[in-house]
């Protein structure tokens, strides 16, 4: 008499979907480095659950539904009281390597694409350091404004009446783009134009003199304040256009921060709808709209549905948005966006807990939303499994030309760790 070993997913109404959602390996298509051990307390840990700053972060953020849910999930793994202050105490008592392993290893992330331009002060680990948590090597996402700022700084001592700042910059910036384009370590590019002058990037060059003057304005402010921030629209747009051209030639995607961010963005200029002229002007350049474009998710889904070169990332809303809000966002992503163009990410940064929460919450919500689709007769269970695999792994693997095989055992082991 033969016996069948019960599956750990038999408790679910849709066990095949549950196995995919909770046990399939993932490619994190947009994240940032973890803090180095010597800087583990550099920032307030509340930043792991909110983009707020100042009093809004320290006094308000811990009283949201999103925070309460995150606290419960973190306390479960830390084996402490379900209380934010207890979570902070428990994590502070752990050696840093143990803390990182505890929260990174249960994620089932096979490969991380890391934008390391967030670390302007050199307080984070480098990209390759993160390989210890994955079975496939991490890749770099090049933040173009960071590259542009470094080039301008390099040019400042060389500025003279006989040197065209714009011409010199263009030569060096194009060389940097070409180098990145041919570097197998680089998976793509990233723009934070949303944080500077908004997403209404002009696809037209306009006056060369205007671009030149705006570049000089950035340099002048740097000379006066010691801080370089590209906040002049003609020059900012120019940097983006050069990147779009280079990325189109090498078929490496350009990620754009859209929607959800801290108070440094202008919310009304962060809708991806502003990118439509640029998208249309560069049909051969793959474009990834980051962070679910929340609260403009439906606009992003529309763009991904009508432009072949547009993809939609559903990240960062885990854990910043409540669970019901997350379900709504995933439903909105699925309203129009082809399931072959949906990419998942954690937007993990600084603290390993951000990777953990960004993963397990996304897996839970994917299962719940797709279960509803099955029950409403919109999908078969096998179709829902395909959607999950595409969102977590297959789409990013194809778009970024990673050439990876899914490490199924990694996903299974990770699921066993966090579902205990």
From TrEMBL:
Q: Name one Pfam family in it.
A: Amidohydro_2
Family matches, as InterPro entries: Amidohydro-rel (IPR006680), Metal_Hydrolase (IPR032466)
Task: Give all residue intervals belonging to the Amidohydrolase-related domain.
Answer: 241-401
Q: Could you tell me the superkingdom of the organism this chain comes from? A: Eukaryota
What organism does the record attribute this protein to? Answer: Botryobasidium botryosum (strain FD-172 SS1)
The protein in question is named Amidohydrolase-related domain-containing protein
GO molecular function annotations of the record:
hydrolase activity
Q: Which SUPFAM superfamilies match?
A: Metallo-dependent hydrolases
């Amino acid at each position: 008499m033969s016996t069948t070993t019960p599956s750990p997913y038999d408790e679910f109404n849709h066990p095949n979907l549950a196995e995919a959602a909770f046990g399939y390996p993932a490619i994190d298509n947009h994240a940032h480095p973890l803090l180095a051990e010597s800087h583990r307390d550099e920032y307030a840990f509340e930043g792991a659950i909110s983009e707020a700053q100042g009093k809004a972060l320290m006094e308000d953020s811990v009283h949201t539904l999103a925070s309460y849910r995150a606290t419960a999930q973190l306390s479960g793994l830390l084996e402490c009281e379900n209380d934010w202050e207890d979570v902070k105490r428990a994590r502070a008592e752990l050696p840093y390597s143990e803390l990182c392993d505890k929260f990174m290893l249960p994620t089932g992330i096979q490969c991380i694409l890391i934008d390391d331009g967030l670390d302007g002060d050199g307080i984070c680990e480098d990209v390759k350091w993160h390989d210890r948590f994955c079975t496939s090597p991490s890749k770099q996402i090049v933040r173009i404004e960071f590259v542009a700022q470094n080039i301008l700084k390099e040019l400042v001592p060389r500025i003279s009446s006989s040197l065209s700042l714009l011409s010199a910059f263009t030569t060096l910036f194009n060389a940097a783009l070409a180098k990145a384009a041919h570097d197998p370590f680089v998976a793509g590019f990233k723009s934070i134009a949303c944080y500077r002058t908004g997403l209404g990037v002009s696809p037209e060059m306009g006056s060369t003199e205007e671009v030149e003057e705006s570049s000089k304005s950035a340099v002048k402010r740097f000379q006066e304040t010691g801080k370089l921030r590209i906040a002049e629209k003609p020059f900012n747009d120019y940097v983006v256009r050069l990147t779009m051209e280079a990325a189109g030639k090498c078929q490496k995607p350009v990620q754009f921060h859209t929607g959800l961010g801290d108070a440094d963005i202008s919310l009304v200029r962060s809708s991806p709808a502003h990118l439509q002229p640029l998208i249309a002007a560069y049909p051969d350049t793959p474009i990834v709209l980051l962070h679910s474009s929340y609260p403009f998710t439906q606009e992003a889904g529309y763009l991904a549905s009508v432009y072949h070169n547009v993809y939609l990332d559903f990240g960062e809303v885990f854990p910043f948005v409540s669970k019901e809000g997350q379900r709504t966002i995933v439903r909105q992503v699925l309203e129009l966006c082809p399931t072959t163009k949906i990419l998942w990410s954690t937007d993990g940064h600084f603290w390993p807990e951000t990777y953990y929460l960004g993963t397990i919450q996304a897996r839970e919500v994917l299962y719940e939303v797709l279960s509803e689709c099955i029950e409403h007769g919109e999908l078969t269970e096998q179709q829902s499994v395909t959607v999950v695999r595409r969102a977590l792994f297959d789409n990013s693997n194809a778009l970024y030309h990673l050439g990876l095989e899914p490490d199924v055992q990694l996903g299974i082991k990770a699921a066993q760790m966090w579902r205990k």
